[in-house]
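Hi V.,

Quick status before I head out on leave. The structure for the redesign project is tokenized and pasted below; the design run finished overnight.
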């Protein structure tokens, strides 16, 4: 009895924020006073479960099973895969394919962030590009299957899976009675509630020219997600060219939109994640038009001349911490 009581109290005691490497990135969760050992353990086992389903880098994942059977047969898709893929295909439609969950052959070819990263030949790029086609994905919702009809096609949900994971964690924590905290899945931030009663979380937007650069802008948020896509998350430099991990399906090359980073602020992390990648590829003008189609979404764009474009809903709340960055007052122009 005494032992049971001791272990009960030791489990319920708050522990400091916890960090794990999962979903191919460093994930940190800070739940303050509500952060018990058990609740953190549950969070990280949920993230591991998602990785096992959605990863494009593990041979035992459900996504890899679908990729392996491309051109062969439909594969039963896990509910997580179906949910993420359905949203990814919606965003692909809305972005005219700038966002494309079948980007896998190009991602594999460039190998950015892996030991095999290299600039492929134009022939190789053309060959891989021909396999990138979200319109060809066959989702059978009744059978619960996904079929990629051409051998060599590959799903890659890396631009949206972390957002899905953050939303899932937020739901899980809410069922455990946790309504305050901050989740950081490799830069994909989600805040639960306020930081302390009535006080917002202050989220920093990093210098996009520097890997893990310091904050150059600050943004107060309560119960929101802030997701950033940028040129310094994963990249390599070859002959003076900076090749980063966000690929424009139209060219087969890393997107050259003049933007260095795109941060999307919203309530659904999955949508914000998909949009940060999309807007980065589409560029300032088309990207901001896209953002306006979503009632609940705001954006901060930094271009290669340090101009900062902020969607109208944010102009009063953002603070610039580094004067090298200059805000363009109205981004609807
Ligand atoms: P993010 O950091 O959220 O912008 O996502 C980048 C990741 O998404 C890359 O590492 C690829 O796995 C994947 N990706 C790259 N280009 C695209 C694209 N055009 N559409 C969808 N996913 C992409
Ligand atoms: Mg993304």
């Amino acid at each position: 009895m005494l032992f049971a009581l001791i272990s009960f109290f030791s489990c319920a005691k708050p522990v400091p924020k916890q960090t794990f490497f999962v979903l191919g990135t460093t994930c940190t969760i800070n739940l303050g006073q509500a952060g018990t050992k058990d609740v953190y353990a549950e969070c990280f086992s949920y993230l591991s479960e998602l990785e096992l389903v959605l990863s494009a880098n593990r041979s035992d994942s459900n996504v890899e099973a679908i990729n392996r059977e491309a051109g062969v047969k439909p594969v039963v898709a896990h509910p997580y895969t179906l949910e993420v893929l359905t949203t990814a295909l919606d965003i692909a439609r809305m972005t005219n394919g700038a966002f494309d969950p079948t980007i896998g052959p190009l991602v594999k070819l460039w190998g950015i962030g892996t030991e095999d990263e290299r600039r492929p030949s134009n022939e190789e790029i053309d060959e891989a590009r021909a396999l990138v086609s979200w319109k060809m994905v066959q989702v059978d919702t009744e059978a619960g299957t996904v079929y990629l009809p051409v051998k060599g096609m590959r799903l890659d949900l890396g631009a949206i899976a972390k957002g899905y994971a953050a939303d899932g964690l937020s739901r899980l924590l809410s069922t455990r009675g946790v309504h305050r905290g901050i989740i950081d899945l490799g830069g994909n931030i989600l805040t639960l509630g306020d930081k302390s009663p009535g006080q917002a979380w202050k989220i920093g937007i990093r210098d996009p020219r520097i890997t893990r650069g310091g904050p150059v802008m600050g943004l107060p948020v309560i119960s929101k997600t802030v997701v950033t896509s940028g040129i310094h998350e994963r990249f390599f430099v070859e002959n003076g060219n900076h090749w980063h991990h966000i690929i424009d399906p139209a060219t087969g090359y890393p997107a050259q939109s003049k933007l260095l980073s795109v941060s999307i602020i919203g309530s659904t992390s999955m949508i914000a994640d998909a949009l940060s990648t999309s807007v980065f590829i589409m560029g300032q003008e088309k990207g901001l038009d896209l953002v306006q189609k979503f009632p609940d979404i705001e954006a901060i764009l930094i271009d290669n001349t340090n101009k900062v474009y902020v969607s109208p809903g944010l102009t009063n709340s953002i603070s610039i911490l580094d004067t090298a960055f200059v805000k363009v007052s109205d981004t609807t122009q």
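Above is the designed sequence. The CA atoms of residues 26 and 69 lie 30 Å apart.

G. will cover questions while I'm gone.

Best,
W.
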